[in-house]
Specification:
Oligomer: single chain
CATH architecture of the largest domain: 3-Layer(aba) Sandwich
Strand content: 15-25%
Distance between the termini: 10 Å
Number of domains: 2
Order of helices and strands: EHEHEEHHEHEEHHEEEHHH
Shape: globular
Structural class: alpha/beta
CATH class of the largest domain: Alpha Beta
Helix content: 25-40%
């Protein structure tokens, strides 16, 4: 059986690349950002619906076997403490609403481990009547990729099922994702940060030492100085990641096309879910539906 999944808060579609690679069919995806919808339409054949999910009625959706939800994590992350915005948000309620009303065979939710700090959110997403829910946390991107990024994954199903934990089919090294001729722009922020003019120094990763990069963050679109890679061909022996390298840090294949500017690409990549995590989730659902 090939299960059909509807993808909510789908962003640029990174998680969906992994799902499709595992054999899942995407029926519809729902996303509010126009440039993300453009990216999806460049790469997928399924229906991409640009909408505000908080205002959308469940009855407008096509039927599916699975609901996949990767709703925004900014209000759950530790970084939100700095700005006093770590308060949770209402997005989980709309995922809960869609699952509770449409009652698919299963659902998967992805977010940051910090979501566990919000008992109301966790109760809603793990105590849905009629579902067995299993949590995997942390799921580490470094299992497959040269990037430090921990995620929380919930697997909810009608039948009790023994899910297989994440395991690597191949861990990619940082040196393997670097371009021979990277398309980069070194802005003044890089030099200012290297000179100690900002609160934090850059995180510099060395491919020759088999380092892994820090979490690929969406704010890289604003300031490419926070994460640098060693490269002796450039001033100070370091440089930012190119948009393609940044995408590779998330496991995005080179055939995937992004809409928008280079800054839009950084933002879409940083807000995305590592492709191998989506593929692992997809493989588990293929096991479930074909067991």
């Amino acid at each position: 059986m090939i299960p059909i999944a509807n993808s909510y808060y789908s962003g640029g579609g990174l998680f969906d690349i992994g799902l499709q690679s595992a054999g899942i069919q995407i029926g519809q995806s729902f996303e509010i950002e126009p440039v993300c919808c453009q990216t999806q339409r460049l790469n997928f054949s399924h229906e991409v619906v640009q909408c505000d999910i908080t205002q959308k009625l469940v009855k407008a959706d096509k039927s599916c076997d699975l609901i996949i939800a990767t709703y925004p994590c900014t209000k759950y992350s530790t970084a939100a403490d700095i700005h006093g915005t770590r308060t949770g948000d209402e997005h989980f309620l709309h995922v809960f609403r869609h699952i509770a009303i449409s009652q698919p065979e299963g659902f998967s939710v992805e977010n940051v481990p910090g979501m566990r700090k919000f008992p109301v959110v966790m109760e809603a997403m793990t105590k849905l009547p009629g579902y067995y829910v299993t949590m995997f946390c942390p799921v580490k991107a470094e299992t497959w990729l040269p990037q430090k990024r921990n995620r929380l994954i919930l697997m909810g199903s009608r039948k009790n099922f023994l899910w297989e934990p994440p395991s690597s089919w191949r861990a990619v090294r940082l040196a393997e994702i670097l371009e021979e001729n990277p398309d980069i722009e070194i802005n003044q922020h890089v030099y200012n940060r290297l000179q100690g003019k900002y609160r934090d120094m850059p995180i510099i990763s060395d491919p020759d030492k088999n380092d892994i990069a820090p979490c690929a963050a969406a704010h890289y679109a604003k300031d490419q100085s926070t994460r640098l890679v060693k490269d002796k061909r450039f001033p100070h022996g370091v440089r930012p990641y190119s948009p393609r390298e940044y995408a590779r840090l998330q496991g995005v294949p080179d055939w995937f096309k992004f809409a928008g500017s280079r800054l839009d690409i950084y933002r879409q990549v940083g807000n995305g879910v590592p492709v191998p995590i989506g593929e692992w989730v997809g493989r588990q659902w293929m096991r479930y539906f074909n067991s």
